[in-house]
Amino acid sequence: MKKSMGLILQGGGALGAFEFGAVAALLEDGWHPTAVTGVSIGAINAASIAGAKGGDITASLNGIWEAITLPTLPWLPANKQSDLSLLGNPNFWQSRLDVWNMRNWNSYCTTGPMLQTLASHLDFGQLNDPQHIRIGVTATSLYTGGLTTFSNHTGEGAHPDGGHHKSVRAQLTPSHIVASGSLPPGFPATRIDGTDYWDGGLFSNTPIDALLNLLEPDEIDSLPIFVVDLFPTDGQSSPANLREVQTRALALQYQNRFWTEYGGSAGLDGFLAMLDKLESVTAGTPVEGTPAFEWLMRRRALKNLHVIASGPAAEGGDHDFSEAGIRARYQAGRAAAQRYLARMTPRRTLRAA
Protein backbone atom coordinates (compact mmCIF):
# COMPACT_ATOMS: atom_id res chain seq x y z
CA MET A 1 0.00 0.00 0.00
CA LYS A 2 1.32 3.42 -0.94
CA LYS A 3 1.89 5.85 1.89
CA SER A 4 1.77 9.54 0.98
CA MET A 5 4.56 11.85 2.09
CA GLY A 6 5.94 15.34 1.71
CA LEU A 7 9.61 15.51 0.77
CA ILE A 8 12.18 18.27 1.31
CA LEU A 9 15.52 18.04 -0.50
CA GLN A 10 18.52 20.24 0.29
CA GLY A 11 21.27 21.51 -1.96
CA GLY A 12 24.83 20.21 -1.83
CA GLY A 13 26.15 19.40 -5.29
CA ALA A 14 27.32 15.81 -5.60
CA LEU A 15 26.12 15.18 -2.03
CA GLY A 16 22.67 15.01 -3.63
CA ALA A 17 23.46 11.37 -4.45
CA PHE A 18 22.76 10.73 -0.75
CA GLU A 19 19.23 12.09 -1.37
CA PHE A 20 18.93 9.78 -4.37
CA GLY A 21 19.70 6.79 -2.16
CA ALA A 22 17.37 7.93 0.62
CA VAL A 23 14.48 8.45 -1.80
CA ALA A 24 15.11 5.02 -3.33
CA ALA A 25 14.76 3.43 0.12
CA LEU A 26 11.59 5.41 0.88
CA LEU A 27 10.03 4.30 -2.41
CA GLU A 28 10.91 0.66 -1.71
CA ASP A 29 9.21 0.98 1.69
CA GLY A 30 5.98 2.06 0.00
CA TRP A 31 6.21 5.82 0.42
CA HIS A 32 5.09 8.02 -2.45
CA PRO A 33 5.68 11.79 -2.70
CA THR A 34 2.53 13.88 -2.80
CA ALA A 35 4.45 17.16 -2.57
CA VAL A 36 8.18 17.76 -2.96
CA THR A 37 10.38 20.83 -2.66
CA GLY A 38 14.04 21.16 -3.46
CA VAL A 39 16.88 23.60 -3.77
CA SER A 40 19.96 23.38 -6.01
CA ILE A 41 20.82 19.67 -6.53
CA GLY A 42 17.70 19.00 -4.44
CA ALA A 43 15.69 20.86 -7.10
CA ILE A 44 17.18 18.58 -9.77
CA ASN A 45 16.22 15.54 -7.68
CA ALA A 46 12.75 16.98 -7.05
CA ALA A 47 12.25 17.63 -10.76
CA SER A 48 13.42 14.09 -11.53
CA ILE A 49 10.73 12.82 -9.13
CA ALA A 50 7.83 14.97 -10.35
CA GLY A 51 8.90 14.76 -14.00
CA ALA A 52 9.69 11.05 -14.07
CA LYS A 53 8.68 9.72 -17.46
CA GLY A 54 5.91 7.18 -17.07
CA GLY A 55 5.90 7.89 -13.34
CA ASP A 56 8.96 5.68 -12.78
CA ILE A 57 10.80 7.76 -10.17
CA THR A 58 13.62 5.29 -9.61
CA ALA A 59 14.40 5.08 -13.33
CA SER A 60 14.23 8.87 -13.64
CA LEU A 61 16.68 9.47 -10.80
CA ASN A 62 18.94 6.75 -12.19
CA GLY A 63 18.93 8.44 -15.57
CA ILE A 64 19.79 11.89 -14.26
CA TRP A 65 22.57 10.62 -11.99
CA GLU A 66 24.05 8.42 -14.70
CA ALA A 67 24.13 11.49 -16.95
CA ILE A 68 25.99 13.69 -14.45
CA THR A 69 28.34 11.04 -13.02
CA LEU A 70 31.82 11.18 -14.55
CA PRO A 71 33.29 7.93 -15.89
CA THR A 72 36.35 6.50 -14.17
CA LEU A 73 39.63 7.19 -15.92
CA PRO A 74 41.70 4.00 -15.48
CA TRP A 75 45.03 5.80 -15.80
CA LEU A 76 44.23 8.35 -13.04
CA PRO A 77 44.90 7.47 -9.36
CA ALA A 78 41.73 6.79 -7.42
CA ASN A 79 42.35 9.65 -4.98
CA LYS A 80 42.37 12.10 -7.91
CA GLN A 81 39.09 11.01 -9.50
CA SER A 82 37.05 13.07 -7.03
CA ASP A 83 38.41 16.35 -8.41
CA LEU A 84 37.75 15.64 -12.08
CA SER A 85 34.57 17.72 -12.14
CA LEU A 86 36.63 20.86 -11.46
CA LEU A 87 37.52 20.62 -15.16
CA GLY A 88 33.84 20.41 -16.14
CA ASN A 89 30.94 17.98 -16.21
CA PRO A 90 29.70 17.50 -19.80
CA ASN A 91 26.02 16.96 -18.92
CA PHE A 92 25.93 19.50 -16.07
CA TRP A 93 28.26 22.45 -16.71
CA GLN A 94 31.03 23.54 -19.00
CA SER A 95 34.09 25.52 -17.96
CA ARG A 96 34.38 28.83 -19.78
CA LEU A 97 37.04 28.97 -22.47
CA ASP A 98 36.86 32.66 -23.46
CA VAL A 99 39.90 33.55 -21.39
CA TRP A 100 40.50 36.67 -23.51
CA ASN A 101 37.28 38.04 -22.01
CA MET A 102 38.02 37.05 -18.41
CA ARG A 103 37.77 40.62 -17.09
CA ASN A 104 34.07 40.57 -18.00
CA TRP A 105 33.26 37.15 -16.56
CA ASN A 106 30.56 36.83 -13.91
CA SER A 107 30.99 33.06 -13.57
CA TYR A 108 33.58 30.36 -14.21
CA CYS A 109 31.19 27.99 -15.97
CA THR A 110 28.07 27.85 -18.10
CA THR A 111 25.00 25.75 -17.23
CA GLY A 112 23.70 25.13 -20.74
CA PRO A 113 24.46 21.38 -20.54
CA MET A 114 22.13 20.92 -17.55
CA LEU A 115 19.30 22.71 -19.36
CA GLN A 116 19.64 20.14 -22.15
CA THR A 117 19.97 17.21 -19.73
CA LEU A 118 16.77 18.14 -17.90
CA ALA A 119 14.85 18.74 -21.11
CA SER A 120 15.85 15.37 -22.57
CA HIS A 121 15.39 13.25 -19.44
CA LEU A 122 12.21 14.64 -17.88
CA ASP A 123 8.55 15.02 -18.79
CA PHE A 124 7.81 18.69 -18.07
CA GLY A 125 4.15 18.30 -19.02
CA GLN A 126 3.76 15.81 -16.20
CA LEU A 127 6.00 17.85 -13.88
CA ASN A 128 3.60 20.80 -14.24
CA ASP A 129 0.56 18.70 -13.33
CA PRO A 130 -0.15 19.14 -9.59
CA GLN A 131 -2.59 16.23 -9.73
CA HIS A 132 0.44 14.03 -10.31
CA ILE A 133 2.90 15.51 -7.78
CA ARG A 134 3.04 19.01 -6.36
CA ILE A 135 6.50 20.53 -6.71
CA GLY A 136 8.25 23.74 -5.69
CA VAL A 137 11.86 24.80 -6.28
CA THR A 138 13.49 27.78 -4.61
CA ALA A 139 15.89 30.42 -5.93
CA THR A 140 17.34 33.65 -4.56
CA SER A 141 16.18 36.79 -6.38
CA LEU A 142 18.96 39.27 -7.13
CA TYR A 143 16.28 41.98 -7.35
CA THR A 144 14.75 41.50 -3.88
CA GLY A 145 17.53 39.61 -2.12
CA GLY A 146 14.84 37.23 -0.92
CA LEU A 147 13.66 33.73 -1.75
CA THR A 148 11.28 32.85 -4.57
CA THR A 149 9.55 29.49 -4.82
CA PHE A 150 8.46 28.49 -8.31
CA SER A 151 5.72 25.88 -8.01
CA ASN A 152 2.99 24.10 -9.93
CA HIS A 153 0.51 24.52 -7.08
CA THR A 154 -0.52 26.76 -4.21
CA GLY A 155 -2.39 25.11 -1.37
CA GLU A 156 -5.69 26.47 -0.09
CA GLY A 157 -4.95 29.00 2.65
CA ALA A 158 -1.24 29.16 1.76
CA HIS A 159 0.77 32.39 2.00
CA PRO A 160 2.39 33.08 -1.37
CA ASP A 161 3.66 36.51 -0.26
CA GLY A 162 5.75 36.17 2.86
CA GLY A 163 7.82 39.30 2.48
CA HIS A 164 11.29 37.98 1.69
CA HIS A 165 9.81 34.66 0.60
CA LYS A 166 7.41 34.76 -2.32
CA SER A 167 5.75 31.77 -3.92
CA VAL A 168 5.01 32.06 -7.63
CA ARG A 169 2.72 29.71 -9.52
CA ALA A 170 4.61 29.08 -12.75
CA GLN A 171 4.86 26.82 -15.76
CA LEU A 172 8.12 25.18 -14.70
CA THR A 173 10.87 24.79 -17.28
CA PRO A 174 14.48 23.58 -17.13
CA SER A 175 15.46 27.21 -16.47
CA HIS A 176 13.51 27.26 -13.18
CA ILE A 177 15.35 24.14 -12.03
CA VAL A 178 18.75 25.49 -13.05
CA ALA A 179 17.97 28.85 -11.39
CA SER A 180 17.61 27.01 -8.09
CA GLY A 181 21.18 25.73 -8.45
CA SER A 182 22.89 28.78 -9.98
CA LEU A 183 25.55 28.99 -7.29
CA PRO A 184 28.07 31.83 -7.78
CA PRO A 185 30.81 32.31 -8.71
CA GLY A 186 30.89 28.91 -10.42
CA PHE A 187 27.56 29.31 -12.19
CA PRO A 188 25.97 32.44 -13.71
CA ALA A 189 22.64 33.82 -12.59
CA THR A 190 19.63 32.43 -14.46
CA ARG A 191 17.19 35.00 -15.83
CA ILE A 192 13.47 34.27 -15.56
CA ASP A 193 10.86 36.85 -16.63
CA GLY A 194 13.42 39.65 -16.51
CA THR A 195 14.80 38.84 -13.04
CA ASP A 196 18.14 37.17 -12.31
CA TYR A 197 18.30 34.34 -9.78
CA TRP A 198 21.07 32.62 -7.87
CA ASP A 199 21.06 29.38 -5.88
CA GLY A 200 18.19 29.21 -3.37
CA GLY A 201 20.55 27.73 -0.77
CA LEU A 202 22.18 31.15 -0.39
CA PHE A 203 18.99 32.19 1.44
CA SER A 204 17.80 28.89 2.90
CA ASN A 205 19.06 25.40 2.15
CA THR A 206 16.07 23.63 3.71
CA PRO A 207 12.89 24.72 1.85
CA ILE A 208 10.38 23.82 4.53
CA ASP A 209 8.19 26.91 4.07
CA ALA A 210 8.00 26.13 0.35
CA LEU A 211 6.63 22.68 1.22
CA LEU A 212 4.09 24.14 3.67
CA ASN A 213 2.67 26.33 0.89
CA LEU A 214 1.97 23.22 -1.21
CA LEU A 215 -0.14 21.52 1.45
CA GLU A 216 -3.91 21.41 1.50
CA PRO A 217 -5.73 22.01 4.83
CA ASP A 218 -6.57 18.34 5.36
CA GLU A 219 -2.89 17.40 5.08
CA ILE A 220 -1.52 19.78 7.69
CA ASP A 221 -2.21 17.49 10.64
CA SER A 222 -1.61 14.17 8.93
CA LEU A 223 0.95 14.18 6.12
CA PRO A 224 4.38 12.79 7.07
CA ILE A 225 7.18 15.08 5.86
CA PHE A 226 10.69 13.76 5.28
CA VAL A 227 13.72 16.06 5.22
CA VAL A 228 17.03 14.75 3.91
CA ASP A 229 19.73 16.65 5.82
CA LEU A 230 23.04 16.75 3.96
CA PHE A 231 24.96 18.96 6.39
CA PRO A 232 24.87 17.78 10.02
CA THR A 233 27.61 19.72 11.80
CA ASP A 234 27.51 18.81 15.49
CA GLY A 235 30.04 16.64 17.32
CA GLN A 236 32.87 17.06 14.81
CA SER A 237 36.51 17.83 15.50
CA SER A 238 38.18 21.05 14.38
CA PRO A 239 39.55 21.14 10.80
CA ALA A 240 43.22 20.17 10.51
CA ASN A 241 44.05 21.55 7.05
CA LEU A 242 42.77 24.08 4.51
CA ARG A 243 40.74 21.51 2.58
CA GLU A 244 38.97 20.48 5.79
CA VAL A 245 38.44 24.17 6.62
CA GLN A 246 36.72 24.70 3.26
CA THR A 247 34.54 21.62 3.74
CA ARG A 248 33.46 22.64 7.26
CA ALA A 249 32.80 26.25 6.24
CA LEU A 250 30.54 25.00 3.46
CA ALA A 251 28.70 22.70 5.85
CA LEU A 252 28.14 25.53 8.34
CA GLN A 253 26.84 27.77 5.57
CA TYR A 254 24.29 25.24 4.35
CA GLN A 255 23.44 23.32 7.50
CA ASN A 256 19.83 22.76 8.52
CA ARG A 257 19.06 25.73 10.78
CA PHE A 258 15.46 24.65 11.15
CA TRP A 259 15.77 23.50 14.75
CA THR A 260 16.98 26.90 15.98
CA GLU A 261 13.93 28.72 14.63
CA TYR A 262 11.22 27.26 16.86
CA GLY A 263 10.39 27.20 20.51
CA GLY A 264 13.53 28.69 22.03
CA SER A 265 14.72 26.45 24.87
CA ALA A 266 11.50 24.42 24.54
CA GLY A 267 12.49 23.27 21.06
CA LEU A 268 10.11 22.11 18.34
CA ASP A 269 7.88 20.15 20.72
CA GLY A 270 7.43 23.28 22.84
CA PHE A 271 6.57 25.29 19.74
CA LEU A 272 3.97 22.73 18.66
CA ALA A 273 2.46 22.63 22.16
CA MET A 274 2.19 26.43 22.06
CA LEU A 275 0.32 26.21 18.74
CA ASP A 276 -2.20 23.82 20.28
CA LYS A 277 -2.82 26.20 23.19
CA LEU A 278 -2.97 29.22 20.90
CA GLU A 279 -5.58 27.56 18.72
CA SER A 280 -7.79 26.81 21.70
CA VAL A 281 -7.59 30.23 23.37
CA THR A 282 -8.14 32.21 20.15
CA ALA A 283 -11.17 30.26 18.93
CA GLY A 284 -13.92 32.72 18.08
CA THR A 285 -11.72 35.79 18.62
CA PRO A 286 -10.65 38.40 16.01
CA VAL A 287 -7.21 36.77 15.95
CA GLU A 288 -8.61 33.68 14.32
CA GLY A 289 -8.50 33.94 10.55
CA THR A 290 -5.83 36.63 10.36
CA PRO A 291 -2.96 35.92 7.94
CA ALA A 292 -0.35 35.70 10.70
CA PHE A 293 -2.51 33.30 12.73
CA GLU A 294 -3.28 31.12 9.74
CA TRP A 295 0.41 30.86 8.84
CA LEU A 296 1.22 29.79 12.40
CA MET A 297 -1.52 27.16 12.24
CA ARG A 298 -0.08 25.87 8.97
CA ARG A 299 3.11 25.14 10.88
CA ARG A 300 1.27 22.45 12.81
CA ALA A 301 2.43 20.26 9.91
CA LEU A 302 5.86 20.24 11.56
CA LYS A 303 4.57 17.70 14.08
CA ASN A 304 4.96 15.13 11.31
CA LEU A 305 8.55 16.01 10.41
CA HIS A 306 11.15 13.25 9.99
CA VAL A 307 14.82 14.00 9.35
CA ILE A 308 17.11 11.52 7.59
CA ALA A 309 20.62 12.82 8.26
CA SER A 310 23.85 12.04 6.46
CA GLY A 311 27.24 11.72 8.09
CA PRO A 312 29.79 14.56 7.97
CA ALA A 313 30.52 15.72 4.43
CA ALA A 314 33.72 14.31 2.97
CA GLU A 315 36.44 16.71 1.86
CA GLY A 316 35.48 18.08 -1.54
CA GLY A 317 32.40 15.86 -1.53
CA ASP A 318 30.17 18.53 -3.03
CA HIS A 319 32.10 18.40 -6.31
CA ASP A 320 32.96 14.68 -6.31
CA PHE A 321 30.95 13.37 -9.27
CA SER A 322 33.22 10.34 -9.73
CA GLU A 323 31.61 6.92 -10.08
CA ALA A 324 33.05 5.77 -6.76
CA GLY A 325 31.99 8.93 -4.93
CA ILE A 326 28.42 8.93 -6.25
CA ARG A 327 28.01 5.20 -5.57
CA ALA A 328 29.25 5.59 -1.99
CA ARG A 329 26.88 8.47 -1.21
CA TYR A 330 23.94 6.69 -2.86
CA GLN A 331 24.55 3.61 -0.71
CA ALA A 332 24.97 5.79 2.40
CA GLY A 333 21.62 7.47 1.69
CA ARG A 334 19.86 4.14 1.23
CA ALA A 335 21.32 2.80 4.46
CA ALA A 336 20.48 5.95 6.45
CA ALA A 337 16.86 5.91 5.26
CA GLN A 338 16.51 2.19 5.97
CA ARG A 339 17.85 2.68 9.51
CA TYR A 340 15.47 5.57 10.10
CA LEU A 341 12.44 3.66 8.78
CA ALA A 342 13.29 0.66 10.97
CA ARG A 343 12.99 2.76 14.12
CA MET A 344 10.50 5.36 12.85
CA THR A 345 7.88 6.45 15.38
CA PRO A 346 5.32 9.24 15.22
CA ARG A 347 6.45 12.65 16.43
CA ARG A 348 2.98 13.21 17.90
CA THR A 349 -0.10 12.14 15.94
CA LEU A 350 1.50 10.82 12.77
CA ARG A 351 -0.77 9.03 10.36
CA ALA A 352 0.17 7.68 6.94
CA ALA A 353 -2.16 9.34 4.43
Automatic annotation (TrEMBL):
GO BP of this protein: lipid catabolic process
Entry keyword annotation includes Lipid metabolism: yes
Highest taxon of the lineage: Bacteria
Annotated ranges, domain PNPLA: 7-212
Motif (GXSXG): 38-42
SUPFAM superfamilies in UniProt: FabD/lysophospholipase-like (SSF52151)
A Pfam family assignment: Patatin
UniProt entry tagged with the keyword Ligase: no
GO MF entries: hydrolase activity
Motif DGA/G, residue numbers: 199-201
Motif GXGXXG in this chain: 11-16
Entry keyword set: Hydrolase, Lipid degradation, Lipid metabolism
Active site (record annotation): S40, D199
Protein name: Phospholipase
Naturally occurring in which organism (per UniProt): Pseudoduganella plicata
Lineage of origin: Bacteria, Pseudomonadati, Pseudomonadota, Betaproteobacteria, Burkholderiales
